[in-house]
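Q: Could you fold this chain for me?
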Amino acid sequence: MVEKEAEECETRTENTENVKTGVSITSIIVMIVTVIICCSNVLLLEKIVKEAPNCTAFVTFSAYVTIVLQTIVLKPGLLANYTIPLHNYLIITFLFYTTNLSNNMALSYAVDMPTLLIFRSGSLLANMVVSIIAFRRSYSLSKYISVLMVTAGIIVATLASADLKKNSADDATFSVWMTGITMLTYALFGSAVMGVFQEKLFAKFGKKSDEVLFFSHLLGLPAFIFNYSDLAQTIVDFNNFDPVSILGVSFPFLWCCIAVNVVLQSVGIKGIFYLLSEWSSLSVTMVTTLRKFISLLLSIFLFQNPFTLVHWIGTTLVFSGSALFSGIIPLPGGKEKKQ
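A: Sure. Below is the predicted structure, expressed as structure tokens.
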């Protein structure tokens, strides 16, 4: 029975490796709205982190609390009537907590937003590697070429950022930056492993995206006890920030920003989880890569982040590889053969 469920999970992903047929209009609308929301949220997050560099753990915690409270209010029966046994969430909860925290906290370790976005676009590479290991899948020639392009682009862009850090900062700052890059590396492959576990759960228990979303957040809340000191200090910093007036009532500016951030983030996460239940994890990875490219451009021009010619070369490789992966750019020489 277990082997049969694994085979069905593998077949489901292989059948959706190329452009999936019969994609609903609803899922396309969800995809477009999710991209817009996620891009807006990335820019707002960058603004918050520039104002309060050590707030990233609090940003992650706020998103968790928002998702849990929202689900309890809108779907109160989910807490008692769930389909997937709770022990199945242990690995997903751990991966979801550590990857989200690592991605956000990397911004507190001298990693700028463009570098983060380029680096995280390597999810294509991570997803393919984990799928090959977990399911022994094979891919078409264009997929392997595209992932090599993405990998090369990330390496080029990361080395360019490393040169900037070495030339403009001391050794201590460079070590902090390397810690941030290490956190991003873990988050990259951790997210890919989590995607495989989600596919297995959906194949075994059905498309329960709301349930997985809720319990992966609820069960992860106790872990934030390890971030207590950072959370407490962020609250103090936010309270001391300059106020803004909303409908005649004054609120600290960063509290307003975090309120908008958690709303956008919760809606964006729900969109991603919905797409994961409708499309394969590789297809959803393509969507997230698109929004990273848009966010990258907006971050460079709106926040004047340093971006050299070498960065642009790396960026071109990353997103050209992503386009080749999705089939937007065909492989020269006609049809490719499946490996």
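A (continued): The first strand starts at residue 243 and ends at 246.
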